[in-house]
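Reposting from the mailing list since nobody answered there.

I have sequence plus structure tokens for a pair of proteins and want to know whether others read the tokens the same way I do. The first protein:
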Amino acid sequence: MATSLRDNLTSAYLDAAHRMGPKKARRRIVAYVESYDDVAFWRTLLSEFEDDEHYFQVMLPSATSLAKGKKMVLMNTLNTAELGHSLIACVDSDYDFLLQGATGMSRKINSNPYIFQTYGYAIESYLCYADSLHEVCVQATLNDRHVVDFHAFLTRYSQIIYPLFLWNVWFYRRHDMHTFPMYDFNACTRLQDVNIRHPYHSLDAVQRSVEDKLHELHRRFPDSVEKVRKLGETLRPLGLEPDTTYLYIQGHHLMDGVVMKLLTPICTLLRREREQEIKRLAEHSEQFHNELTGYENSQTNVSLMLRKNSGYKQLYLYQWVRNDIQKFLDSERL
């Protein structure tokens, strides 16, 4: 009875969605996403595939409440005949991609051709893509000076946390969320205050924390050490390597506990440099104050710029999702 009601509600929701727009020959495909923050990302991606035959409408999964999230998306898609024809689900992978069917949720997400996932942990993985972070700083501060090599920094960070991350995934694949839970991993791998003069000192502290935890795990679970190492080998085809680990850790932890810890002092430095330049070049106090006011009004909050970042399109994870969408559309034409 509950399934029938949910099917009816989903069908009614889709019918309403079809009536919202003007009458066109193009087929509307509704894409359910988890939250408000996900709308922009999936809109950016799916818009690349719109043509004379079809277009997408990105929306939250419930027509009857404000309920959001991954479970709500899957509940409102998996049990309806609309899935695949005029409805798709777009979700964060979390650990489900790396779990490779070890849980029921993971099996559903990895096997259903109409469920599209981020492959990296979440959309934040894309927003924090190392090769796009300099542009984020430029947009926030209007200062194009390179302060830190973001690619090198996050590569080194990934190399440090990689062996500990494997242990975290190992326990989750064994349905053990208590021995070494994600919040413990995050506590071990969070950056402390970053000194821009010596940014890699913050990685030294992370390395000490990681080594301490690894020593504890090796002592408590000596029979699992080799199994965890072999797990790393099986995960390499999924893109998880020592250099790319940051893309697979929890999204909010990556953004708030790592990347923003780095971006905030960098942008503070870049703003001060620009202000000092204005002071040095101003011919009189009035020009200085006018120029400084104009500069201050042109700046943007770095956290906001990071959330609006779209410089991830060369990231291999993004290309994987694009390929999935293309396969889906190609199959619909057959």
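The second protein, same order (residues first, tokens after):
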Amino acid sequence: MERIKVAILAGGVGSRLSEETESKPKPMVEIGGQPILWHIMAHYAAYFDPEFFIALGYKGEYIKKYMVDYVSLTKNITVDFAQQEVKRHGTNCDGPNWRVNLIDTGQSTNTGGRIKRLGHYLQDGTCMLTWGDGVSDIDLHKLLDFHRSHGKLCTLTAVRPPARFGHLRFEGDRVVEFNEKPQTAEGWINGAFFVLEPEVFDYIDGDSTQWEHEPLRRLADDGQLMAYRHDSFWQCMDTLRDKKLLESLWDSGNPPWMARHIVQ
């Protein structure tokens, strides 16, 4: 598998999901017994041999503890009480083979600032970037191939926005189709899942910069921003309603974002 660096922004407060995020950062909100961050990482690991760089902020210590504990829980350990040592050795078939860098990027740093702070680790070539609160069935190989084909500095993934209410289709007064929360057939929004070249970091001024505003606008003005259109499943987890939707998809036994998940 190709080795590639993947940055994940995981430092926001997640105020619209306060029922869960009062005690934990939003990427640690669980779907099917695992944090949504784990689902995102497993998605990348199904396509690449990724090295992850996770930008921490709000309750970042929660994510650090999870990662350290996860290593212990997926490896054999020897606890030497006499020497007061814990030694990890071997692994089991359920544990992933990931390299994860946990980088503190400030409590109040904006999205662009967090990306800028990761720049030191990502300056040596093409890297990928996403948020820590959204899942998709996007083919990441095709996304990367598209980025390499056009030679520009930045690719974003354009997705169809999920409808906020149930969709009905009628024949007369009879309902012939009902979808609880489909994606709309019109319009495109930024679905994250970016691919970046190192020059992109020069477009970010500092900690107060919001990535979605000035940097992306300047990249577009300079002809350096391209969109990879993804017409299939995409869902962010902004609200408790979104979480419940993802849980219901998980409970169905065939969650769409897990189609290629092979934790290695």
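Reply #1 (J.P.):
I read it the same way you do. The CA atoms of residues 34 and 81 lie 31 Å apart.
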